[in-house]
Amino acid sequence: MKRVLRGFLPVLALLLSSSGFLLRGDSGKANPFPDHILLTWTGDPATTMTVSWRSEVSSKSGQVRYGVRGGKGQQRRVKASSTLFATDLGSYRIHTAFLKGLSPTTTYTYTVGDEGLNRSGERSFTTADPKTENFKFLVFGDSQSSLKAERPYSLWAQNLHNAYRLNGDAKFIVMTGDLVDEGQRGAHWEGWFAACQGVMDQIPLFSSPGNHESHGSSETRR
């Protein structure tokens, strides 16, 4: 499976790059509770998982609590690194945690948030089988949507959730670019992430940026 991953850029690199969603802004509007939860791989898919999420500016620390599904042992905790993001909708924080030493072909449950009460509900993911010869993954492109649509990003939500429902054994998702119509406008990312809830926090995502990821920037308007 490692050979498959080399051709794709993890979605974290897209969101953290200067050509991605980095804009000027002031006060944050993110909720105290975590949202925009995403999984990806930045290491061995059989023994690691990378988790990211968003919180308001005041939440300067974050952690992932996780354990084997159905296990009786105490949950493990991994501290996340935090990055301040400034956008046209306001500032917030992106938290990223790298889980390692996981067991292959094992389902884990996890929650994300701070060390207090601001935590997500429980999610789950399954590590890869290093001995597998065949596996399934989902491929999407151009999930972009106009904000003038009656329900922005509703078609993307429908396609994503239907594909995942019909292919529950898929191991990860690949996005080939143009996730949003105007990558430098926060409203588009809000719509995109809302559509992804319940899928991208269950299986890893890999994305390659498209030209629309830079639309809406000052460079584009010149």
Helix content: 10-25%
Instruction: List segments where confidence is low: pLDDT < 50 over at least 5 consecutive residues.
Output: 1-28, 218-222
Radius of gyration: 17 Å
Strand content: 25-35%
Strand order in the largest sheet: 1-2-5-4-3-6-7
Distance between the termini: 43 Å
CATH fold type: Immunoglobulin-like
SSE string, helices as H and strands as E: HHEEEEEEEEHEHEH
Give the number of helices: 5
Name given to the CATH architecture:
Sandwich
Major beta-sheet overview: 7 strands, antiparallel
Structural class of the secondary structure composition?
alpha+beta
Q: Quickly name the level 1 CATH class.
A: Mainly Beta
Number of β-strand runs: 10
* Average pLDDT taken over every residue: 85
Basic shape? globular
Number of individual domains: 1
- CATH-level-4 superfamily name: Purple acid phosphatase-like, N-terminal
